[in-house]
Design brief:
439 residues; 5-stranded mixed beta sheet; 10 helices
Length: 439
């Protein structure tokens, strides 16, 4: 991996994500708190080494003609370095300052070799500001100059003077490049995690939206759509009897108007909190089912209601699900079964509530020879779902919608039917907390 200045940029991060080394975290104008502390440390080290070298030169060569030049260049070096720390500026400005400092330092080292070890802070500064190849070239040149300066100061040949500067420079370069690579890898990992987290959140939002749409479609199907279907049947009957039996036609119109008024209440309640209108204002499930049975007892269909067990206050979701189940079942009975009577039976136990919807209609058709037919639409062992499990896009959701609503509450739906003898639909919901089965 190359230096942050010349490898590809990582994926963009959110505004609150950590700064990436590859995006300019080492740039003077985009420093973090740790970067500023490191810059201050390098500047302090450079100034201390510069002051120590100048003091040594003054003590040993106080009468030299080069002293004014040495002092002047030392002051320039200190001022430029401190100014760069006080006002970082852009990366380009930092490189310009580095070039000025290196040029002045080279002149000082040529005049006084004791200033050679000021190169150590300059090595770190070059690695932070320059691309890897340029930084390595500059570090090599600085280390070579330090070796030459040390050999000039030595009384005789000393292997340490030849080996120590290159080793220090190589060690500093290697450590810095390694840390830079690790920081870049870590930033890539952070970027991937942030991106994955965003994608996961988006997926969860989409799934939640789809689930809510399905729930709303079931609510609308079991309330507004059923009412509109009944109105349509009543208006068609009124149209057929308008001339032959005006009184019966007007009765159908009044019934349709009553259903329309109830549908309007349902629509307002659906917009408000999606609770059935029959459960509004604290009405219990038993009262709501009794009201539903009385309202649906018309046009040749008699609906009775019976409650068994203690009058238990049911959770709102349970009461709403059972009422919607009764509405959907009665709508199917009226439209498909040809029944004359239907019965709603609510049974409340300590840990379970059950609703039975029975009719004396034609029941479900018998299975074909050699096959089975599940009115609930559960898939067969071969994985082919029963046709009744697929909602008709022109008619509604029917039994699959009822089953899906119950399964969300951990409940079950069962149907017993004999051709020509009617059917019994049983919806059961546990009252103790339970984990709903996977759909």
């Amino acid at each position: 991996m190359r230096h942050p200045d010349n490898h590809p940029q990582p994926p963009s991060t959110s505004p609150g994500s950590p700064a990436s080394p590859a995006s300019g975290a080492f740039a003077p104008g985009a420093q973090t708190r740790d970067d500023r502390l490191l810059s201050a440390l390098l500047t302090t080290a450079f100034v201390v080494l510069l002051a120590g070298a100048l003091l040594r030169y003054v003590l040993k060569h106080g009468d030299s003609d080069r002293l004014p030049w040495i002092v002047g260049l030392s002051v320039v070096l200190a001022v430029v370095q401190v100014a760069g720390q006080a006002r970082p500026g852009s990366r380009r400005a930092g490189r310009v300052r580095l070039a000025v400092v290196v040029a002045c330092w080279v002149v000082v080292v040529l005049l006084a070799p004791s200033f050679a070890w000021c190169a150590v802070p300059l090595i770190h500064t070059a690695l932070r500001l320059l691309p890897t190849r340029s930084a390595v070239a500059l570090v090599t040149a600085l280390a070579t100059l330090v070796v030459l300066a040390e050999l000039r100061l030595a009384d005789g040949f000393d292997p340490n003077h030849l080996l120590l500067p290159p080793v220090v420079a190589a060690l500093a370069t290697g450590v810095f490049v390694y840390l830079t690579r690790e920081a870049t890898r870590r930033q890539h990992l952070i970027d991937d995690l942030v991106r994955t987290r965003r994608e996961l959140a988006a997926t969860e939002r989409r799934e939640g939206t789809l689930a809510e749409r399905q729930r709303l479609s079931r609510e609308i199907h079991d309330s507004l759509a059923q009412g509109l279907s009944s109105q349509n049947m009543l208006l068609q009957a009124a149209d057929r009897q308008w001339d032959t039996d005006p009184e019966a036609a007007r009765t159908h119109l009044r019934t349709a108007a009553s259903i329309a008024a109830h549908g309007l209440t349902e629509a307002r309640r659906l917009v408000h909190d999606l609770a059935p209108a029959d459960l509004a204002e604290g009405a219990g499930l038993a009262q709501a089912l009794a009201t539903l049975a009385a309202r649906e007892s018309r046009d040749g269909l008699t609906v009775r209601f019976h409650a068994e067990g203690p009058d238990t206050h049911l959770p709102d979701q349970v009461a709403s699900a059972l009422l919607r189940t009764a509405q959907g079942a009665l709508a199917n009975i009226r439209e498909h079964s040809g029944a004359r009577t239907a019965a709603l039976t609510l049974t409340c136990l300590d840990d379970t509530v059950a609703l039975d919807v029975a009719d004396d209609g034609r029941g479900f058709p018998a299975p074909e020879p050699g096959g089975t037919r599940d009115p609930l639409g559960d898939p067969d062992p071969l994985g082919d779902p029963d046709p009744l499990s697929r909602p008709d896009p022109l008619r509604g959701h029917g039994l699959p919608a009822i089953r899906a609503r119950l399964r969300q509450l951990g409940g079950t739906l069962a149907i017993e039917s004999t051709p020509g003898e009617g059917a019994v639909l049983t919806a059961t919901i546990p009252l103790t907390p339970a984990t709903p089965p996977a759909p």
